[in-house]
Amino acid sequence: MIEALTFDLDDTFWDNRPVMARVEQRHYEWLDARIGHAGDFPLEEYQRRRAELARRYPLRRGDFTWLRRESLYTMLLDFGLGAERARHWTDSTIEEMLRLRHEVEIYHEVPGLLEALREQGLGLAAITNGNADIHRLGLAEHFDIIIPAGEWLAPKPDARCFLAALAYLGVGAPHRAMHVGDSWREDVLPAHHLGMPVAWIDARNERHDCPPHVHRLDHVRELPALLARLDRQ
Ligand SMILES: [Mg+2]
Prior knowledge:
It holds the Pfam family Hydrolase. The chain is α/β, with parallel strands linked by helices and 233 residues long. Helices cover 47% and strands 12% of the residues.
């Protein structure tokens, strides 16, 4: 008997690939249009600095906003801006990045689906490694708890973000909560290893062989039918 569900966000509730492609290009171009730094510091240099920072501070590897902010700031100092201007342009570029980050098209079935699950008395948690803020997306009201696992320094596949959700929701045992997510490595495997059933949204059509209690779906809209089927078993 399922008592609760934990949900991934990116590529589970919306297609995140076009979103991130836009974010990456456009906030950098936005800054370049204002201060003309990209000739000296092309996008690849910004990406290289973020990767290096994530290696140097492995606990913060999942805190993507922090990685961008710190990399931008030191890069703008190296570009020759004083501390105050570097801080100003970093802050406004991050603001622009977050604005673009939230230009997502939530699948139209999602709000109704979450509402129906709540009406059935199920506990609902969101666990994300990304920096999408579901308050900003208007979905927060559907959840009992929202765990930004990257910012909490325990990004999936770390088991602690799943355990925190189960504890908060008061779930008696992991097999009574289903995790729903698209990533084989960050969603399916860790939840499965904890003993949670999993609805795997195979958004990239990877078609791994699913172990027992891992259910492959093409789209999150298929979740209610899966839950009804499991209920009947
Ligand atoms: Mg995802």
